[in-house]
Amino acid sequence: MRCVINGFKTAVRVTNYLSPARNSIQFERFRLHAVRQFSVESSPACWNCQKKSNLRQNMICSDCGHLQDVDAEINYFDLLSFPTKFSLESQKLTKNFRQLQTIVHPDKFSNKTSREQTNSADWSSLINKAYKTLATPIERGQYLLQLEGEQMPQDNSALNKEFLMAMMERNEEVEDAVDSQTLEDLNAQVVKELEDMAQKLNSLFAAKDIQGVKGTLVEMKYLLSIQNGIKQKQQSLLGS
Ligand SMILES: [Zn+2]
């Protein structure tokens, strides 16, 4: 019985994560992104010099050097100077992220116009969000899927029974654990499996196997939910 309840809890968590509202927002974002790419010729002129200049780092007018308004629909890969694909070098990602944050750092705009001050804060938070999305394999995978115009599955149909059974057993092991060493071992196992799945995503995206990508992303969510359970159990052991 407990096994069934655990499985149910996991399913609920995963379903919450994939709420239709969230998906429709993502779809709208994707649609806007597509529209923007299509209408690049009619991109807005610089708010300061009124010229339709090229932008440096997608943010700065190359004519007058003023920081432009935030482009909330920008492709995160473009923003962080990466090709739009799953495989990326994480050290380079961090390096590009820090460079961008230096460019828009609020200190650099403290004696500039209030519009640029606002823009620097807006860009800074967008750059953070883009970095967090691309740095985490599951987030990066979902973001790429969304750029492809694909939705995450709303149910467990992408999963096979064996996987679901294994996850239920895993949940039971977490519940039954009575010491932190057991939990650490369980966590190490989950970490390893998540790494393997990130590798698998790499090949699946390269092969344009969208169904495979979806299935793997859902599996990763299950594993992350188990990892969450491990953390909670660890805290409750510390508290007792
Ligand atoms: Zn300008």
UniProtKB/TrEMBL annotation:
Pfam families according to UniProt: HSCB_C
Keywords in alphabetical order: Chaperone
Organism: Drosophila rhopaloa (Fruit fly)
Domain of life per record: Eukaryota
Every J domain range: 75-147
CDD domains, sorted: DnaJ
SUPFAM superfamilies assigned: Chaperone J-domain, HSC20 (HSCB), C-terminal oligomerisation domain
HAMAP family given in the database record: HscB (MF_00682)
Gene3D superfamilies: DnaJ domain, HscB, C-terminal domain
Protein name: J domain-containing protein
UniProt xrefs under PANTHER family: IRON-SULFUR CLUSTER CO-CHAPERONE PROTEIN HSCB
Family classification: Belongs to the HscB family.
InterPro entries according to UniProt: DnaJ_domain, HscB, HscB_C_sf, HscB_oligo_C, J_dom_sf
